Amino acid sequence: MNGIEKISQKILAEAQERAAGMTAEAEREAKNLLDEARAAAEKECAEIRAAAEQRAQTAAELAQQNAAAEGRRRISAEKNVMINRAFELAQKKLLELPDGEYTALLARLAAQAYEGGDAELVFSEKDRGRCGQAVTDAANAALGGAHLRLAEDAAPISGGVILRRGKIEINCALEVMIRLLSEELSPQISECLFGKGA
After folding, report:
1. pLDDT of amino acid 170
2. DSSP string, 77-135
3. Domain coordinates of the chain in residue numbers?
4. Does domain 99-194 have CATH number 3.40.50.300?
5. Contacts of 112 by beta carbon, 8 Å cutoff, 6+ apart
6. I want to staple 157 with a disulfide (CB 3.0 to 4.6 A). Which of 46, 85, 146, 173 is the partner?
């Protein structure tokens, strides 16, 4: 081997050594980049999974709160229906009172509504025939004079009486009286039907 071949081999050996070093360095760098990318992807996946779990938990809590609120709303609506039925039943029972008791009730309502002067009592068509004159007579007796007279017309009410003096009317119809009482008595009725704090 002559000198040129030796130099060529030396250059070739150094180039191969340098290439092997560069290849090893590139492989190390590629491995580091791959490890970093894998770690970043795992971190991002964990963050996405945690965010998704948080969203799912929040959605589940919201759905549970909505379901509980809807349940409370439905229960409240059903309680209101039952309370209204109680007042409807009370009105029905009043309308079904025996004539004497019913007459006394309407006479009391008329006497309490009376504010002076001449007035007339207006009844439903049914009550006008059933007890209109008897209520008028009983109310006048309670007031100590003949201040009230039986109206010739009837009112579109289910029961009770309307005291009319000129254009002024005091409505003592049972449905009106029950509605006014229902606003005041609903809490007590609710407590009777559903217990305290219901």
Report:
1. 94
2. HHHHHHHHHHHHHHHHHHHTS-HHHHHHHHHHHHHHH--SS-EEEEE-HHHIIIIIHHH
3. 1-96, 99-194
4. no
5. 172
6. 173
